[in-house]
Amino acid sequence: SQFLALIFSTLSLSFLHSLSLFFFFSLLLVFSVTDLELFRQELRPVIILYHPKWVSLCYQKQLLAFCSWFCCIALASLQQAVVTMNNFQQYRHIASPGWRLGWTWAKKEVIWSMMGGQTTEQGDCSKFKAGIPHCCKKDPTVVDLLPGTPYNQQIANCCKGGVLGSWVQDPTNAVSSFQVSVGRAGTTNKTVKVPKNFTLSAPGPGYTCGPAKIVKPTQFIQADKRRVTQALMTWNVTCQYSQFLAQKTPSCCVSLSSFYNDTIVPCPTCACGCQGNSSLSGSCVNSQTPHLASVVSGSGKNNLSPLVQCTSHMCPVRIHWHVKVNYKEYWRVKVTITNFNYRMNYSEWNMVVQHPNFDNLTQLFSFNYKSLTPYGSINDTAMLWGVKFYNDFLSQAGPNGNVQSELLFRKDKATFTFDKGWAFPRRIYFNGDNCVMPPPDAYPWLPNAGSRQEVSLFALVIAYLVALVFYAHA
Predict the structure, then answer these.
(1) Every domain of the chain and the residues it spans
(2) Membrane-spanning residues where (predicted)?
C-alpha cells in the first residue's frame, strides 16, 4: 500500500504540472507628461514553486485519494503574480522610506509566499493548520525589501528599499518588481478576479489609483527565441499624483537677487505656513536654540512631518536665484538650494526651472542638466540635479544643508534684457512640487528704471475730497 501511495502521489504531481497556470500582474505608474516615450519592461517567465508542506503531508500520512486530491486542488489554484511598478514621471521620484502598495482582494485569496517584497502585516491565519501563509489579510499592504537581501529572496528590479528614480534622472532605477504566490485565486481567466481599491503611498499621500484594466496577456520569449509562452492574465493600474492631496501647504519657495540692485527679495511671508498658526505651519525650531540636536531628535515620533527652522516663510526648502555677472555676450546666474527641514535629507533631489534663455545655456557647473520640451519646439524648461556622489545628497538643515551651482547663458539680442524682471525664472519645481514665487512687482529692478512711485490710498482719498470741495465752490 505504501508503494501504491507513492506512485499515486507522483502521478498526481505530474498531473499537477499540466494544471498549473500563472499570471502576470503589471502595475504602471503613468503620468501626463508630453512627448514622453513609454517603454514596456521585459520579464522572464515565472516558474511555479509548489508548497513543500503540502507535498510532504501527502507522503507522510499516505492518504491515497483524499490527500492526493487535496494537493492537486490546492496547488492547481496557487497562482504566481509578478507586480512591476514603472515610474514614468520625468522629474518626480519616490524617495526613502519608499513606496507602499495596497489593494483589496476580490474573493478570499491569501498570499502564501513572496519574493522581492513583503506585506506589512500577516493578518489572521488561524484557519490554516498544515501551513501558515505569508499574509491572510483582505487588504494587504506590500513594501519593498531592503538592499542586501539574500539572493534567494530576490527577483529582478527588487530590493531598493522602495526608492524609485524619476524617468529623466535615473531611468534604470525607475522600475520596481516583486512576486507573490496567491492561493484561492482560481485556475482560469474566468475564475481569477481582479483586485480592487489600489492605494499607493510614496511614502505619504498624494497618489490616487484608478481601477485595474485587463489588457492583452503578456508574452514571454524563451532563451532560444523559438518558443513564446503567454501569461494567464495581465492588467494595468494607473496612479496619478496631486500636490494638493500630498500636503496642505507648499513645500518650497523662491527668493531673488541681482548684481544691479542691492535689494534681496525674500520668499513671500507665510509662503508655506506661519509661525503663529500651528495648523498651517506645524512645528519649527530656532537655529540658535541651545542643545539643538537633542531638541530635533526628541520632537515627535512621525519623521515624515517636517520640522523646519523658524523663518518668515516656514518652507522646508528655499531656492535662491541670483543674477551674478553681466558679460558682453553672456550672463551668469548662481542658484542655491537650502534645506530648512531638520527631519529630511533629500537624496537624488532635482529641480525644474522655466526660463526663456535655456535655449542658449552654454555651461553648467557641478549640476547635471537635461532639456525638457513640453511645448514642442519651445525649449524654455530645464531639469537640474546633483552629480552622483558629489552633491546629489541635500543634507538636513544646518551648515551643510545646501547645494549650489552657476549657469552661464549666451545672450540672444532679440530677446535678452534685464528690464522688468526678465532675468528671473518664470516657475521653479523642487522634486516635482511647485515652489512659491515672489510677486512680479517685487522683483529687483534696474537702477535706471527710476524709483517706484508709492502713493498711499489715504493720500488719493484726500486729494479726491479736496478736488470735490473746490469743484463745489467754483
Answers:
(1) 2-244, 248-291+304-449
(2) 6-31, 63-82, 455-472
Q: Take residue 328 and report the three cell numbers written for it.
A: 558682453
State the Cα–Cα distance between residues 336 and 348, nearest whole angstrom.
16
Give SS3 for 355.
coil
Distance CA 312, CA 218 (A): 54
pLDDT beyond 80 at 48: no
Pick one of 3.40.50.720, 2.60.40.290, 3.30.365.10, 3.30.2290.10 as the CATH number of 248-291+304-449. Answer: 2.60.40.290
Residues 205, 109 contacting (CB under 8 angstroms): no
State the pLDDT confidence band at 188, using cuts at 50, 70 and 90: confident
Residues in the chain: 474
Q: Under the phi-then-psi rule, with left for phi > 0, alpha for psi from -120 to 50, and beta for the rest, what region is 460? A: alpha
Residue with cell 507522503: 59
97 preceded by a cis bond (ω within 30 of 0)? yes
The CA distance from 185 to 254, in Å, is 52
